[in-house]
Amino acid sequence: MLGRMSDAGVSGDLAWVFARQRFGMHPGLGRVEALLSRLGEPQRAFRTVLVGGTNGKGSTAASLAAMLRAGGVRAGLFTSPHLTRFTERFVVDGAELPEAEVTAALAQMRPLAEEVGASFFEVITALGALLFRRAGVQVAVMEVGLGGRLDATNALDPVLSVLTNVGLDHTEVLGDTHEAIAREKAGILRAGRPAVTGVALDLLPILRAEGADLWALGQEAELRVQGLGWDGSEVTVASPSGTVTVHTPLLGAHGAANAGLAALAALRLGLSPAAVQAGARAVQWPGRFEVIPWRGTRMLLDGAHNPEGAQAVAAALRALGVEGLPVVFGGAGDKDLAGVAAALRPLASAVVLTRAVLSPRAADPADLADLFPGVPLTVTENPQAALDALAALRAPQALVCGSLYLLGEVRPLLLGESAEDRERWQ
Fold first, then answer.
1. Are residues 34 and 116 in contact, defined by beta-carbon separation less than 8 angstroms?
2. Tell me, which fold does domain 288-415 have in CATH?
3. Cβ-contact 264, 215 below 8 angstroms
4. Helix or strand or coil: residue 132?
5. From CA 145, how far away is CA 81, in angstroms rounded?
6. CA 125, chain centre distance (Å)
7. Residue 5 per-residue DSSP state
8. Could you state, in order of their start, the residue ranges of all structural domains in the chain?
9. Burial (Cβ within 10 Å: 0-12, 13-18, ≥19) of residue 95
10. Which of 188, 337, 366, 380 measures 20 to 30 Å from 133, CA to CA?
């Protein structure tokens, strides 16, 4: 049985792993494989599903984990980044693992991680595998971090791989064309093993070159969506494994597509239609087109931080009959914020610019003013000031968008919850 750690020890180990964010990302599998080896190969204790893609991989992974849980499978869910709490990254059967359990495991593996020089994401990937083994997880749904081929999660050996889509993000690492990024993301596929995807049909030859047993939406499988407004969508998936119709609370056409892809993955894993339906209904995925009532305003929160994601949000708003609303906006300076703003600008009745104060990557709000020509602007220095400015507008609904780190600071303010006070890079 693990002993109780002191608060100083807990704080010290969390501070250590957060500090490793500053060393950046170092693609490659050698360090994480060495760390997993020193931990006794914990990833071999459960089956793994890898979920990659540019957008929607988190909601797809969360939907699939909920379907597995509904089917009686003890499921682990590993996602990144977290919004408010570090423990959000490690979920078993729908519940975050206790912080004491997470930090105790982190303390035990820290010397080994230092020995191999593991990066922040390599540490937490191995930590997830260790925690899932200890929790008796049967299937772990692992969200890929960056790309695929050289991402730390790819050190695990998947029984099924899922690729949501391919967009232009992280181009400085993955390449500046859809084709180049598709090649990197296709690295999570395994020759001869099952895989499902929702990528654009013109990119499928790149994925098929990996030799996986691939089912693609639009070819081997078909997706039909009936929007239900603020109640989500009814999604029908027809596949070689059968046809299932589910109701998902995920909003927008992109939310429906993610739920449909998760349902296709669940069918490939042998889950019953009843389990797929129950899991789809039960999924919750905070910060992704999430609705939170606040002081008479319907607050819509979405972490879209690239043009494709913002375009999906704008399309979803229009489908819901929203033609103009205030937008609280802030994002990382290394993202295509001009492209994100271009997608949102036609819907913005006013814009409140701000920043995630815990993210050193956050762009200066004053530098974003030129992205919204002709739109009434307010520039603020932190999320609380942004919400104060928004409250003065007395709008029936508003959107917070541009960065998951921004949402991680706004969301606790809306809900009256406490939040971490640690620098956020990854």
1. yes
2. Protein-Tyrosine Phosphatase; Chain A (3.90.190)
3. yes
4. helix
5. 9
6. 14
7. P
8. 7-282, 288-415
9. exposed
10. 188
Of 171, 190, 84, which is closest to residue 421 (Cα–Cα)?
84
Domain 7-282 class in CATH: alpha beta
Could you tell me which residues come within 8 angstroms of residue 416 by beta carbon, excluding any fewer than 6 positions away?
none
| pLDDT per residue rounded down to tens, the chain (426 residues) | 223 333 344 468 888 998 888 766 677 899 999 999 999 999 999 999 999 999 999 999 999 999 999 999 999 999 999 999 999 999 999 999 999 999 999 999 999 999 999 999 999 999 999 999 999 999 999 999 988 999 999 999 999 999 999 987 665 566 678 898 999 999 999 999 999 999 999 999 999 999 999 999 999 999 999 999 999 999 999 999 999 999 999 999 999 999 999 999 999 999 999 999 999 999 999 999 999 999 999 999 998 889 999 999 999 999 999 989 999 999 998 889 999 999 999 999 999 999 999 999 999 999 999 999 999 999 999 999 999 999 999 999 999 999 999 999 999 999 999 888 888 876
Q: Do domains 7-282 and 288-415 have the same CATH topology?
A: no
Token pair of 321, please? 């009959």
Write down the pTM of the prediction.
0.93
Amino acid at 72: G
Q: What token pair was written down for 270?
A: 């042998």
Question: Residue length, the chain?
Answer: 426
Q: Dig out the tokens for 47 from the structure.
A: 């089956």
Cβ–Cβ under 8 Å, residues 244 and 276: yes
Annotate 116-143 with b (16+ C-beta within 10 A) or e (fewer): bebbbbbbbbbbbbbbbbbbebebbbbb
